[in-house]
Design goal:
Chain lengths: 264, 418
């Protein structure tokens, strides 16, 4: 029996997607805009960067304790995103386009590292011999759809003419790549979660999926400061909360390398 | 008692029959009866009957004399007779071996060596027509003569109070959801220097309301030291003592006087009528008593406290890593509080945990506490240390859980890159 709270948490991911479609692709409430580089910078620092530091710290400590590559990659991914978010935010206050590029590039590398970490974590489990055909079909189909999607963007076909009215093609392609890689990462971590039922992985998968949909909202943005943009920013803030919950879900256990003795 | 004056007043007569022979027994008995009549005495002591019995060549004759002559004579004249019968060291036979069957009551006085101290014991072996205590009593011989120490008497406690009273420590009251039930017993465990006596003094000094009296019994500190201790926190214990609201009693327990101590405590609990009693510490008492005797005595003390609505706080010095189950009188107590010291970052920190609170919800978190100018102050729970109770506290982190989630294996120390 899934609790209402859990249902709401999971529903938040498609909800962001739905809002992105509504405000970005469909154009609902078009014209409602509020562009504020300062607000975005504050949010970047107060939420995204702060939370990323928490995740980075625990990942670094974890790597130092275990030497696990996937934990290191994970820490790097979060650090990359948090750091580029804060830098992008500052640059945006000077030039929005350049700030956006910075933001997107950071997200791209971050999602790549997340994906690598997700794959390594996933491969760390037992080899599964079930549903091989289905998995092959799904993987190849997803790749084909993604390539087709990129080609539509290149050709600027009418079907997508209303999408991404801002930004250049490479920017749009990069955002799409970020969305895809983050989704794939979320998928891998969720698969590991289905094996371990670790609340840490639950929140982490949810955070990655939410981030992915937040970037989808950026992808669908018609104009800077429109509702789709704020949906994306809101999504990133929500994802930060999920990242934080992931860290807090880790049980506090005594460290084996930092002991203090008792005098009792 | 002034026996010479009593003799002059005709109230007492001493008769000395140094050498008793069988043929002279009849004469002696006749003389005794005559003296009883002339004095109209109500009490007769024969010291010792064993010496008299030895004059008979056959034991049956001594029994006849005891049963028929002495017994009937004295009963007819309403005289209570006390026979002193001797008992050889190591012997199980009392006197001539017949006195105990003839007498209406047999009180046996013995002594034993307990931890290097002579302890005088009194057993009421027989008391026809009277229900008496089954437990061994203890006595002493002093200026007042022979004094029997009354053991603590357990009373039925039908009127169990639902009223909660403060422990004198605000943070602890919160942990106990409003304090402890009136008449309950609190055990404060901890190593030396953890703040047991301070908590006990605070329990007394800060708690009493108007018209409440408190009693502190110490086995390690003198009343003056306790006053200095309490006054250093600004509790004005001296004022409480001067006004009669507090009484500080100090004892230096050893096996020969331990029963006297409990007898005095029992008397004070009944006569002084305190609302709170502190026993600091049980460990000092435990060391001078055998385990069964200690358990039974504490059980009676708890029972007496409950029956009279006296909230008792007892401290106990424990060893490293000790748990309540290690201190076996803990089952008798209603609330168990453990105070500990933890070393962290070159600093001694103090931890407090409530192990047990009978019939009451409680906050079971391990809280940090400080002893400052105003006494004990309970602070927040420990968030940076784990395994405090185990005796080997460690810094707590989320690293292990985190790495386990992403690697599928528990944290292990690998590599040399740290």
């Amino acid at each position: 029996m899934i609790s209402i709270a859990r249902k709401l948490e999971i529903a938040s991911v498609p909800a962001i997607g739905a809002l992105a479609v509504m405000f970005g692709l469909i154009g609902f409430a078009a014209g409602v805009e509020w562009e504020s580089a300062i607000a975005e910078t504050i949010l970047n620092i107060a939420v995204i960067f702060s939370v990323s530091l928490v995740v980075v710290r625990i990942s670094a400590k974890s790597f130092l304790a275990t030497g696990s590559s996937n934990v290191l990659l994970l820490g790097l991914a979060v650090f990359e995103f948090g750091f580029s978010a804060i830098l992008g935010g500052f640059i945006s206050s000077i030039d929005i386009a350049e700030g956006l590029e910075m933001y997107i590039l950071g997200a791209l590398f971050s999602s790549g590292l997340h994906l690598a970490s997700g794959v390594l974590t996933y491969r760390g489990g037992p080899v599964r011999r079930t549903h091989l055909r289905l998995r092959v079909w799904f993987s190849y189909s997803a790749t084909a759809v993604f390539v087709l999607f990129l080609s539509f963007l290149v050709l600027n076909l009418p079907i997508l003419s209303s999408i991404s009215q801002i930004g250049s093609f490479p920017e749009r392609a990069l955002i799409a790549t970020v969305v895809g890689m983050l989704l794939a990462s979320a998928f891998f971590f969720s698969r590991v979660y289905s094996r371990s039922h670790s609340p840490i992985l639950y929140w982490y998968s949810l955070a990655l999926a939410t981030t992915s949909f937040a970037f989808f909202a950026f992808f669908a943005t018609q104009d800077n400061g429109d509702l789709a943009t704020w949906t994306g920013i809101g999504g990133l803030c929500l994802a930060s909360i999920y990242f934080l919950k992931s860290v807090l879900a880790a049980p506090k256990t005594p460290s084996t390398n930092k002991c203090v003795s008792s005098t009792r | 008692m002034d026996f010479e004056k009593m003799e002059q007043d005709g109230l007492f007569r001493f008769m000395d029959f140094v050498t008793v022979k069988e043929e002279g027994i009849d004469e002696i008995l006749t003389t005794v009866v005559a003296e009883l009549d002339s004095l109209k005495a109500r009490r007769l002591v024969i010291d010792s009957f064993s010496a008299m019995a030895q004059a008979f060549s056959r034991r049956i004759e001594a029994r006849i004399v005891l049963h028929t002559v002495l017994g009937r004579m004295t009963r007819l004249n309403d005289v209570t007779t006390m026979l002193i019968a001797e008992k050889q060291l190591g012997s199980k036979v009392l006197g001539g071996g017949m006195e105990e069957f003839v007498a209406d009551a047999v009180v046996e006085l013995t002594h034993s060596l307990e931890r290097g101290y002579l302890v005088r014991n009194l057993d009421i072996v027989k008391m026809r027509g009277t229900r008496t205590t089954r437990s061994r009593l203890h006595y002493d011989i002093g200026d007042e003569g022979l004094v029997v120490y009354t053991p603590l008497t357990p009373y039925p406690f039908d009127n169990v109070s639902g009223e909660k009273v403060t422990t004198g420590i605000e943070g602890l009251d919160k942990m106990l959801r409003g304090g402890v039930y009136k008449g309950s017993t609190i055990l404060v465990m901890g190593e030396s220097g953890t703040g047991k006596t301070t908590s006990a003094l605070q329990f007394l000094a800060r708690a009493p309301a108007k018209n409440e009296k408190v009693l502190f019994t110490s086995y390690e500190e003198s009343p003056d030291e306790l006053l200095r201790h309490g006054n250093s926190f600004g509790w004005k214990l001296s004022e409480l003592v001067d006004s009669g609201k507090a009484k500080l009693m100090s004892f230096s327990p050893d096996p020969s006087i331990i029963h006297k101590i409990f007898s005095e405590i029992g008397r004070e609990m009944v006569e002084y009528k305190p609302s709170r009693l502190v026993v600091d510490s049980l460990t000092s008492l435990e060391r001078v008593m055998n385990p069964d005797e200690f358990y039974q005595t504490i059980r009676r003390l708890v029972s007496l406290g409950k029956s009279r609505g006296i909230t008792v706080l007892a401290t106990a010095r424990t060893t490293e890593g000790a748990l309540p189950s290690d201190f076996w009188v803990s089952s008798l107590t209603d609330v168990i509080l453990s105070l500990r010291q933890v070393e962290s970052q070159s600093r001694l920190r103090r931890a407090l945990v409530v192990f047990k609170a009978r019939g009451s919800p409680l906050d079971s978190s391990i809280k940090e506490f400080e002893i400052n100018q105003t006494g004990i102050t309970v602070e927040e729970r420990f968030t940076d240390l784990e395994q405090i109770l185990s005796g080997s506290a460690r810094r707590s982190t989320r690293v292990e859980g985190w790495s386990e989630a992403f690697t599928g294996r528990p944290q292990t120390k690998t590599g040399t890159d740290r």
